[in-house]
């Protein structure tokens, strides 16, 4: 491609405009592809969100509370638990971009299966609910494969210093598109019925298939052909010998509070009832808006110092969740839909910072040979933490949503100084 004015190619200028980073010529095309594919994947995630979209869909199909309650455990356990078994395969794959393409395509096919089952259920098929849960379980395994392969694919196609910006830009684009769907439901432009929601899930399947095709277009640095796939003993040794990895996992475990908190904000707001569709729309919009305004900024900050960004996001989360807990204790609520949306907005900004910074930190702290293994170890450990936290949900019913949010705020407050003990992963010299 001939250089444009100023000696920069068209791909470099477009990549720079999309990410705000000065990207080398060999990385510019891949950066643009990553932004496009990851944006499609993030929009698909929003359209198949178990805590909101699938929970509403199963309820509309007449599912029991127990079946609806299985959605999040299936999603989290399926996405995290298999990673120790999948990691050696991903680490030995010659090209991580092809593995990510397979993972995206698999998620797309599973989403289409969920949509088909939902449509059949709307027509009276009694097995629809369990078919949806089975398809979600399969989707979650492909999600585990995507989580393992994407960081390595990004590292092999985009240089250090621009990776966080790629993720941040995609997060903002995906959120901007998903907010349109939330707005259409909130104001009644789209009827809130099972067939419409099933159509959105089918659209998510198409987006994942497109993302998989796009991933195949990457030009990737090949892995050495003589690399062997390490087994479970090597994984265990990496955890025992990796002091930095252990510290990172501890910080990330404490910051799972940012992912677990939103349902308790909904409960404390009084908007958790199925009839509170107006409140639900406001919360969906607040969540999407937080990703739009903060995803890119957090990504750029992570490229400068992911450990400082983790600390800052943890401190913000402690303030937001602590403020929500105090407001709930003193007033019995969060100030109505607007107040609840405000607290969720702040909490989700912190969550976006945690998510972006921890991904960038893990990517940049790891060498090519151990990146997939470190990802698997970290994700599997966090999967166990999330399962344990899910088992404590019964205690939250006794203590109350306010006390639970206070505990989450304390965890985030502890994570902030611990994040400062991590090594500077962006060090280039």
From TrEMBL:
Q: Does the keyword Membrane apply?
A: yes
Instruction: State the name under which the record lists this protein.
Output: Predicted arabinose efflux permease, MFS family
Q: Which residues cross the membrane?
A: 53-74, 99-122, 128-146, 166-190, 196-217, 249-268, 280-298, 310-328, 334-351, 372-395, 401-422
Superkingdom assignment:
Bacteria
Q: Which residues form a coiled coil?
A: none
Among SUPFAM superfamilies, the record links this protein to:
MFS general substrate transporter (SSF103473)
Query: Per UniProt, which keywords does this protein have?
Result: Membrane, Transmembrane, Transmembrane helix
